[in-house]
């Protein structure tokens, strides 16, 4: 989605590793037009100066889990769809951002956590993408 904040929602498994997907565009993005034309132009790796991932509990308090995803493996220069990898079936019309998060971030069952990706563009603009993730309890570990 365009500059500002976009929120996705998902149900995940307690202690399970997660790949968070998004489609991110910016007014000054250098990629192709988003498949949802109103979103604008997709960002590419060259548009991004940094990535920062943080986790918050349901009240908005930081959990202390943070990471700095690698731009080259998290931002795609072309729109990814299920033709590229079946995982993209989880995001209607495809996407250009994929961030892997360790299951250690999700140790508690039946909880809501928020994971935010702060994308700082080369020109200084900031885009926040967030995922509201509800963990399901595992029946066996």
Give me the secondary-structure topology.
Blueprint: E1 5-13, E2 18-22, E3 25-26, E4 41-42, E5 48-57, E6 62-67, H1 71-74, E7 75-80, E8 95-101, E9 112-121, E10 126-136
Parallel strand pairs: 1-10
Antiparallel strand pairs: 2-8, 3-4, 5-6, 5-9, 7-8, 9-10
Give your account of this protein's structure.
By secondary structure, the protein is an all-beta fold. It is 3% helix and 48% strand. The protein has one domain (5-136): Immunoglobulin-like, CATH 2.60.40. It has one helix at residues 71-74, and strands at residues 5-13, 18-22, 25-26, 41-42, 48-57, 62-67, 75-80, 95-101, 112-121, 126-136. The strands form three sheets. A five-stranded mixed β-sheet has the order 1-10-9-5-6, with no helix packed on it. A hairpin with a 4-residue loop joins strand 9 (112-121) and strand 10 (126-136). The chain is globular, with a radius of gyration of 15 Å. The model has no long low-confidence stretch (mean pLDDT 92).
Question: Brief overview, please?
Answer:
The chain is mainly β. 3% of the residues lie in helices and 48% in strands.
**Helix and strand element order:** EEEEEEHEEEE
Give a short account of the largest sheet.
5 strands, mixed
Give the class from helix and strand content and strand pairing.
mainly beta
Order of strands, widest sheet: 1-10-9-5-6
Predict the CATH topology: Immunoglobulin-like
* CATH architectural arrangement: Sandwich
Q: How far apart, in Å, are the first and last alpha carbons?
A: 37 Å
Q: Kindly estimate the percentage of residues that lie in beta strands according to DSSP.
A: over 45%
Q: What is the averaged pLDDT score?
A: 92
CATH class descriptor name: Mainly Beta
Number of helical segments with 4 or more residues = 1
Using only CA atoms, what is the Rg? Answer: 15 Å
Which stretches are poorly predicted, pLDDT < 50 over at least 5 residues?
none
Shape type: globular
Query: Could you tell me the number of beta strands?
Result: 10
Number of separate domains: 1
